[in-house]
C-alpha cells in the first residue's frame, strides 16, 4: 500500500508540474513558429523549421517592443532602489528609534495592506493628471517609489531580531543613528534585503493595471501593456504575442537561475520568520 500512496503523490505532483509549466512551454514553442505553422499544426508540436521572424518583428518592426523592455527595466530599477531605501529607513525607525506613538503609527501604516489596490487607482489617477504627470515616466514611478508596507513590516521584524548589544556597542563608539543603520543593521540584514529585492523586481516587472491606466501610446508603456496591445494591434497574431511573452519571461528566468538559492531562502524567511 505504501508504494501506491507514493505513486499517487508523484502522479499528483506530475500533474501539477504539467499544469504549471504547460503554458510556458506553449508560449516558447509558439514563439518560434510562423503563423502558418501555428494554424496548421498541433499547438504543442515542435517548430519545423525554427524561425526568429517573430522576435525580429517585435524588436525592429513597428511593435516597438524593444522600447517597452527598456522602459520596464528603467522603471523596475528605479522602483527597486527607491522602495528598498525608504523601506529600510522606515523599518529602522519603527524597530529601533523611540518616538511618541511609534507602534500606533506602524500598525495604522500596516493596516493599509488591507485596502485593495483597485480602490486607490482613481484617486491616484486624478492626482497624477492634476500634476501633469499622465503618460510620463514619473507618473509610472511616483505612486510606488516610497516605502512599501509589506517590505517595512518584514524589515522591521528582522531588524528587531538583531542583538541590541551590537547597537549599544556602536553607540558607545560614537556612532549615530545613521551610522548604526548603514554599518550594523544593513550588513546583518542582507538575506532579507535580497529577498525584498527579488520580490520587488518581480512585482514591478509584472505590474499591469497602473501602467495600463496612466499611459497611452508607445512612449512609456511597459512590457505588460505592450504585450496586451499586440492582440488588437496585430489582429490576433498569436505567434507574435507568444514571442512577446517569451521575451518578457527571459529577464525573470535569468533572475531565477542566478539567484535560485536566494529565492529558496527567501521563501523560508517570508514564510516562517
Automatic annotation (TrEMBL):
<feature type="transmembrane region" description="Helical">
    <location>
        <begin position="180"/>
        <end position="202"/>
    </location>
</feature>
<comment type="similarity">
    <text>Belongs to the binding-protein-dependent transport system permease family.</text>
</comment>
<keyword id="KW-1133">Transmembrane helix</keyword>
<protein>
    <submittedName>
        <fullName>Multiple sugar transport system permease protein</fullName>
    </submittedName>
</protein>
<feature type="transmembrane region" description="Helical">
    <location>
        <begin position="137"/>
        <end position="159"/>
    </location>
</feature>
<feature type="transmembrane region" description="Helical">
    <location>
        <begin position="238"/>
        <end position="259"/>
    </location>
</feature>
<keyword id="KW-0762">Sugar transport</keyword>
<dbReference type="InterPro" id="IPR035906">
    <property type="entry name" value="MetI-like_sf"/>
</dbReference>
<dbReference type="GO" id="GO:0005886">
    <property type="term" value="C:plasma membrane"/>
</dbReference>
<keyword id="KW-0813">Transport</keyword>
<feature type="transmembrane region" description="Helical">
    <location>
        <begin position="7"/>
        <end position="32"/>
    </location>
</feature>
<dbReference type="Pfam" id="PF00528">
    <property type="entry name" value="BPD_transp_1"/>
</dbReference>
<dbReference type="GO" id="GO:0055085">
    <property type="term" value="P:transmembrane transport"/>
</dbReference>
<dbReference type="InterPro" id="IPR000515">
    <property type="entry name" value="MetI-like"/>
</dbReference>
<keyword id="KW-0472">Membrane</keyword>
<keyword id="KW-0812">Transmembrane</keyword>
<feature type="transmembrane region" description="Helical">
    <location>
        <begin position="104"/>
        <end position="125"/>
    </location>
</feature>
<feature type="domain" description="ABC transmembrane type-1">
    <location>
        <begin position="69"/>
        <end position="259"/>
    </location>
</feature>
<feature type="transmembrane region" description="Helical">
    <location>
        <begin position="68"/>
        <end position="92"/>
    </location>
</feature>
<keyword id="KW-1003">Cell membrane</keyword>
Amino acid at each position: 500500500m505504501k508504494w501506491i500512496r507514493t505513486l499517487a503523490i508523484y502522479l499528483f505532483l506530475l500533474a501539477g508540474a504539467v499544469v504549471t509549466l504547460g503554458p510556458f512551454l506553449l508560449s516558447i514553442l509558439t514563439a518560434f513558429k510562423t503563423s502558418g505553422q501555428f494554424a496548421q499544426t498541433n499547438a504543442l508540436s515542435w517548430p519545423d523549421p525554427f524561425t526568429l521572424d517573430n522576435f525580429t518583428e517585435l524588436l525592429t518592426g513597428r511593435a516597438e517592443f524593444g522600447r517597452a523592455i527598456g522602459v520596464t527595466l528603467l522603471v523596475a530599477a528605479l522602483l527597486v532602489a527607491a522602495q528598498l531605501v525608504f523601506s529600510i529607513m522606515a523599518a529602522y525607525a519603527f524597530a529601533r528609534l523611540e518616538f511618541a506613538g511609534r507602534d500606533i503609527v506602524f500598525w495604522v501604516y500596516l493596516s493599509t495592506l488591507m485596502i485593495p489596490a483597485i480602490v486607490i487607482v482613481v484617486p491616484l489617477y486624478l492626482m497624477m493628471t492634476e500634476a501633469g504627470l499622465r503618460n510620463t515616466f514619473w507618473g509610472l514611478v511616483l505612486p510606488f517609489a516610497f516605502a512599501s508596507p509589506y517590505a517595512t513590516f518584514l524589515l522591521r521584524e528582522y531588524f528587531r531580531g538583531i542583538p541590541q548589544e551590537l547597537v549599544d556597542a556602536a553607540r558607545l563608539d560614537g556612532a549615530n543613528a545613521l551610522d548604526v543603520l548603514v554599518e550594523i543593521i544593513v550588513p546583518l540584514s542582507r538575506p532579507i534585503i535580497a529577498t525584498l529585492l527579488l520580490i520587488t523586481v518581480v512585482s514591478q516587472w509584472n505590474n499591469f493595471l497602473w501602467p495600463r491606466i496612466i499611459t497611452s501610446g508607445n512612449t512609456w508603456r511597459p512590457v505588460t501593456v505592450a504585450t496586451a496591445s499586440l492582440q488588437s494591434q496585430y489582429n490576433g497574431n498569436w505567434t507574435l504575442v507568444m514571442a512577446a511573452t517569451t521575451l518578457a519571461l527571459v529577464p525573470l528566468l535569468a533572475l531565477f537561475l542566478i539567484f535560485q538559492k536566494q529565492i529558496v531562502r527567501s521563501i523560508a524567511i517570508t514564510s516562517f520568520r
